[in-house]
Design brief:
about 140 residues; 8 strands; about 35% strand; alpha+beta; two-stranded antiparallel sheet; OB fold (Dihydrolipoamide Acetyltransferase, E2P); five-stranded mixed β-barrel
């Protein structure tokens, strides 16, 4: 993003033109899984919120609203690019930014991880979902 000021220096114009591939697209865990299954040869940058847990040395992400979120693993998460991997046997609520790919099954390669409290996770997921719903429902025809 670039910014410029006018000759008096008091007006700043922001240029928001960015390549779409540079942005992290928000999706919940179920949307990530279904999109990955439909487009299994495509990868994209994404952002999601969920409950991260370790099962037999592998990380999995479940949706925060699922009743069975602590039982069956959902989305495989790779921490390959992380220096400081969270070390916990307890599930934790997180916000993840990464690249979603299909490698024999859907895998989220995490670039940024934020460990957050459950209340913040719910607030983030509700806010982002309502923003997406608003913009989806108010598209110009």
């Amino acid at each position: 993003m670039s910014c410029n000021s006018n000759s008096q220096g008091d007006v700043i114009i922001f240029d928001n033109r960015q390549n779409v591939e540079e942005l992290y697209t928000y999706m919940n865990v179920d949307e990530l899984l279904s999109t990955a299954e439909c487009h299994n040869c495509k990868s994209w940058k994404c952002r999601t919120v969920g409950i991260l847990k370790s099962v037999n040395g592998h990380f999995y992400l479940n949706d925060i609203y699922e009743e069975s979120n602590l039982q069956a693993p959902k989305l495989l998460v790779s921490m390959l690019y992380q220096d400081d991997i969270p070390n916990s046997i307890l599930p934790m609520t997180v916000q993840l930014f990464g690249i979603m790919q299909w490698i024999e099954k859907p895998v989220l390669f995490v670039e940024i991880i934020h460990v957050i409290n459950p209340r913040m996770a719910v607030n983030i997921q509700n806010s982002l979902s309502s923003i997406i719903n608003y913009h989806t429902n108010n598209k110009p025809h």
